[in-house]
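FAQ: What does the model actually see?

It sees only this:
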Amino acid sequence: MKILDVLQIKEEDKYETGGVAHYTTKTISQRLFFDKVKEKDKDGKEITVKDKDGNEIPVPFQLNSVTNSNDLQEGKTLFNYLFDNQKVPPQPEQYVAFVGCFTFNYDNLNQFRLYGKEGGTKEGTGISIVMNSNFYRLVGKSPVQKKDRQTSQDDIREHLFRCIYFDPDTSQVVSVGHRDFHTFYKTKEVLYNRENREAHIKEITKDIARYKKVIDKKVNDVRKYLEELKKEISEVRKQKIDEDLLYKLLSILRYLVKHVAFKEEQECRIVKMINSSNKDYTPIDENHERFYVNYLPLTNCVSKIYFGPKATGMELFQSLLTYHGFEEVTCHRSTSPLA
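And it is asked to produce this:
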């Protein structure tokens, strides 16, 4: 719980609560912003689903099963450390982890090359959707989900956590997800205001120094708490406790610990554990290739959009956003160089 508290994005994280970015294809973006939920009636005809007030329901953002991850060590890095690389006994997959993956960097060439691919082949053709704090739970309740949670939009929102980047070779926490420091200088005051440019740069440099201290403290705290957790687990295992219970207690944390090789992604995540037998929460796509849960629609949750350096149709997309009620969302062209 101490570690999760350190990793959770809160209101006090003033340099990051402006939003986090989700990189995806332009096709998926269009579906999220412009399409409505549809289903087939008893005759097999496709119809648009409406809520109790008769309003069409927008397509929601989806949290995907971690089995779709590009990291073969997903969920294993933490256990390898805590259990000294001993073979962890097979665990009953009663609960499945579903994650939403984000980054603190809105306009990042590496992210556009990895995830901004239309058709999985054309690099830099995707879109970075910047979610504001309406998309996740900033303050209030414990990260532990309560059984009696209500179903209003406010209560559906989940906590957002930084990822831990861990080096298995040295058993060290290398970093936690955070903004790249150079992004602080990418403000319109610095980019376009030449009259007070130097003053703005000087103030931003001070902000970076303050921010770096905050992140360094988080890294040191996580290191300390992980070492304490490892010692506690070593002791309780000697008492032959129910290890299935131990794995469940670590279920969220295990999916926040990533191999150090992925640290450039500066990732943060929403993690939702769902009982795999709960048919109300675990849709499977028609091709049986994705296991996911619906989260929230993007209504009132997006501040801006960055088009990848090779993405086309930005002006039309901006017009469609206005037409579909996203007047406050602005589109920007990525400044990342990509030949």
